[in-house]
């Protein structure tokens, strides 16, 4: 999977292995337009997003379940382009206090921690916020097709799929668009790993 980050009004490039999103999209203001459209939804209160992560996935590629970390405003918006994908959500590992005051992490398999998925259709925008963003893990399985089940929480809202369909993945480009408070942006620019 290729990653590219655009911050500071999209001029700062990180983790680059060559731009995977035509820089013209940035020069011509295409991306800025979409950031402004997202800002109009007031998902970042009165803020306009200032940070874009571009990921490109070949069919069969995914991303391990993870949380994005506290560097970002607790809302993330993602535009999916070209292919659909399934974004899977998982419960975090549970821990409990033992008698001696130490905490114990209960190991459970990812399969047991799986909750539900969202179908991200091509040209769609998804907004993930609050606990779904801060508490639960998200990931994309490494597979080339996805069978639609009742675990796909938004299936009734999707125009391109019904339960029982087997959707073949092709190359997908995702634009993860967020607002990063200024004070935290400096940390990102110095290459702090997320
Ligand atoms: O590509 C996506 O939709 C998710 C990407 C993601 O979770 C990340 O880069 O942290
Ligand atoms: Fe993520």
Describe the 3D structure.
The chain has about 190 residues and is of the alpha+beta class. It has one domain: Sandwich (Jelly Rolls). The chain is about 15% helix and about 35% strand. It is built from five helices and 14 strands. The strands form four sheets. Strands 2-1-3-14-5-10 form a six-stranded antiparallel beta sheet. It has a four-stranded antiparallel beta sheet with strand order 4-11-6-9. A two-stranded antiparallel sheet has the order 7-8. The two termini are about 15 Å apart. Residues about 10-25 have low confidence and may be disordered. Fe (ii) ion binds near residues 66, 68 and 138.
> Largest sheet, if any?
6 strands, antiparallel
Strand content: 35-45%
* Low-confidence parts: 8-23
The number of E-state strands comes to 14
Q: What class do helices, strands and sheet pairing give?
A: alpha+beta
- Rg, rounded, reads 18 Å
State the order of secondary-structure elements, H for helix, E for strand. EEHHEEEEEEHEEHEEEEH
